[in-house]
């Protein structure tokens, strides 16, 4: 197989035009012989563009180091780093060297001492914000456009942004996160598994959530993201390394972790995953009706197939005009029911029942005289409608609560109680009352067990108590006395010692006539600051009726002077998410969009990490 000739290492700064080099940084033309002489272009770079020359030297140092690894480097290297040590220092070999003719892989060198510039920052934020393929920075037509729009602004090479800017940018983000976490109060963690969509390659992430105590707004950061092929690579040590890396105190800072897939240290409480709780309900619905689920899916898949096949035919347009996007219900979910969420099941029944796809498909098959058209029997239709009514109650209860940023843990206990109340009132009648009554009783029994577990979770109860949308009204028994007993010492230590402010005696020479007059009237009364009282604040807080449509952030900012203790405590628990964020796959996909080269997962991980943190940090 013929190998493509690699670009010169000077291609980031010069375009070759015959025996001349066209400088990308200025209009100069410099002699550049094809036989290999580079003294002229190197001298031009050093004298006219010293900043870029310094950058070039850093790249050369990185390449030289990679071509001559030390014994320590060799012993500590991973497989990927070992492969990347194949660099050679030659005139016509670029920093990107093809290592394999069959895989066409490239292994970039890195230099940890490089600090990215403001221009690097601007370009990199654009790449991350738009999930823009990094290779586009070398697109000739884009460069031409950029030169015309902004003369003098030049994009660097791909290797510059991958080898130098990427590690520097990630390092700066990690430093910023480390600083934020130092001043954070309580922190909750989310440990999330996901599939990359590539066979045998999965991914995992650790997110941190906390509250800005001044503004009461939730904050979050991606602490770590990793792809893996062997599940043994991911265990408690992965979470523990992220905690240690960002110097998070287990005893004083971590509230708990949402983690259904991996074990953690005993001292970290496990928080419930609300979406995971709701996802179990459809499995209960279909426990004895898996054949019905298979038929429901076959109807929708057959409709999609016919729509793709005949949808553009005007003769069939009135049959196949029901619109839905892939995001409404993915084909991947339909093919693998074990991954279907409760919203996927709701979507399936919505299309079958509310949009009448089942009836439309039956009419289409009758018109076109197609045999073996999947169709629900009258009994199956009744059972499907009852299942749909249960999922509609879930959707209604879940969506009735307004959330400014994302659903927080405080919604779990109230939503379960409301949902149980609504399901208990669900009517069961008709020829299949025995079947539907059994389905209903199974769902209610499971939700009652889960609700009891959540009612016994101290962290959930505290988070719910300090949410002004719910307060103390959704517990089986009041949580007021427990709150007072738990936090009285905290309140006494931090608030009730501020009883008076001593006034300093002013210098008599500085007093005006007005000051002397007041002094002649006798001593003033000491300025008193009423001591904050936990019991008093709680009593006043519970006098107000909860309102599910309140904005908790606005409430605590508005009442911070009236309820200073409760506002301080609420800030510790208000950012706990209700569910795992399920962002691991998206993080990988974003990294893959930016850097799509195969078998370079560590670089995709870095791009995904930077993109996720730049987004949540508001860089864009």
From TrEMBL:
Sample GO molecular function, one term: zinc ion binding
Domain of life of the native organism: Eukaryota
Annotated localization: Nucleus
GO cellular component: nucleus
Assigned keywords, A-Z: Metal-binding, Nucleus, Zinc, Zinc-finger
InterPro entries listed in its UniProt record: RNaseH-like_sf (IPR012337), ZnF_BED_domain_contain (IPR052035)
UniProt KW Zinc keyword: yes
Keyword Nucleus: yes
Primary subcellular site in the record, as a coarse category: nucleus
Name of the protein: HAT C-terminal dimerisation domain-containing protein
């Amino acid at each position: 197989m013929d190998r493509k000739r690699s670009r010169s290492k000077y291609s980031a700064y010069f375009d070759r035009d015959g025996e001349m080099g066209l400088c990308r940084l200025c209009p100069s033309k410099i002699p550049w012989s094809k036989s290999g002489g580079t003294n002229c272009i190197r001298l031009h770079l050093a004298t006219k563009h010293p900043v870029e020359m310094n950058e070039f030297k850093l790249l050369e140092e990185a390449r030289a180091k990679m071509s001559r690894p030390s014994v320590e480097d060799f012993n500590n290297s991973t497989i990927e780093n070992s492969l990347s040590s194949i660099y050679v220092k030659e005139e016509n070999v670029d920093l990107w060297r093809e290592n394999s003719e069959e895989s066409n892989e490239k292994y970039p060198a890195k230099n940890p001492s490089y600090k990215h510039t403001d221009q690097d920052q601007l370009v990199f934020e654009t790449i991350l914000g738009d999930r823009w393929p990094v290779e586009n920075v070398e697109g000739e037509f884009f460069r031409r456009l950029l030169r015309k729009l902004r003369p003098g602004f030049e994009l660097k090479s791909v290797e510059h942004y991958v080898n130098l800017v990427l590690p520097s940018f990630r390092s700066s983000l990690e430093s910023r996160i480390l600083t934020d976490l130092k001043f954070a109060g309580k922190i909750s963690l989310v440990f999330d598994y996901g599939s990359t969509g590539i066979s045998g390659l999965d991914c995992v992430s650790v997110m941190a959530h906390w509250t800005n105590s001044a503004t009461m707004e939730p904050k979050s950061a991606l602490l770590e993201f990793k792809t893996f092929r062997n599940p043994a690579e991911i265990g408690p040590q992965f979470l523990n390394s992220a905690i240690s890396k960002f110097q998070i105190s287990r005893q004083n800072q971590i509230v708990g972790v949402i983690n259904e897939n991996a074990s953690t240290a005993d001292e970290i409480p496990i928080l419930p995953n609300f979406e995971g709780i709701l996802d179990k309900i459809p499995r209960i619905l279909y426990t004895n009706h898996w054949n019905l689920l298979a038929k429901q899916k076959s109807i929708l898949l057959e409709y999609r197939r016919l729509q793709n096949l005949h949808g553009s035919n005007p003769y069939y347009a009135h049959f196949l005009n029901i619109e839905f996007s892939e995001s409404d219900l993915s084909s991947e979910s339909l093919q693998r029911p074990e991954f279907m969420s409760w919203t996927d099941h709701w979507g399936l029944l919505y299309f079958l029942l509310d949009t009448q796809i089942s009836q439309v498909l039956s009419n289409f098959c009758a018109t076109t005289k197609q045999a073996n058209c999947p169709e629900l029997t009258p009994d199956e239709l009744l059972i499907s409608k009852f299942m749909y009514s249960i999922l509609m109650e879930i959707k209604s209860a879940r969506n009735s609560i307004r959330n400014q940023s994302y659903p927080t843990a405080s919604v779990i206990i109230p939503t379960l109680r409301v949902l149980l109340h609504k399901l208990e009132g669900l009517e069961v009648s008709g020829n299949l009352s025995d079947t539907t009554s059994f389905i209903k009783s199974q769902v209610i029994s499971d939700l009652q067990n889960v609700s009891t577990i959540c009612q016994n979770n101290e962290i959930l109860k505290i988070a719910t108590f300090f949410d002004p949308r719910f307060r103390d009204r959704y517990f089986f028994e009041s949580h007021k006395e427990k709150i007072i007993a738990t936090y009285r010492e905290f309140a006494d230590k931090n608030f009730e010692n501020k009883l008076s402010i001593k006034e300093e005696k002013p210098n008599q020479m500085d007093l005006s006539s007005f000051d002397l007059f007041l002094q002649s009237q006798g001593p003033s009364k000491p300025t008193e600051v009423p001591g904050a009282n936990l019991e008093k604040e709680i009593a006043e807080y519970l006098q107000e009726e909860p309102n599910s449509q309140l904005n908790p952030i606005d409430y605590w900012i508005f009442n911070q002077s009236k309820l200073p203790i409760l506002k301080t405590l609420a800030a510790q628990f208000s950012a706990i998410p209700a569910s795992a964020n399920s962002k691991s796959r998206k993080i990988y996909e974003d990294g893959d969009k930016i850097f799509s080269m195969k078998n370079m997962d560590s670089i995709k991980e870095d791009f995904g990490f930077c993109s996720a943190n730049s987004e949540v940090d508001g860089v864009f």
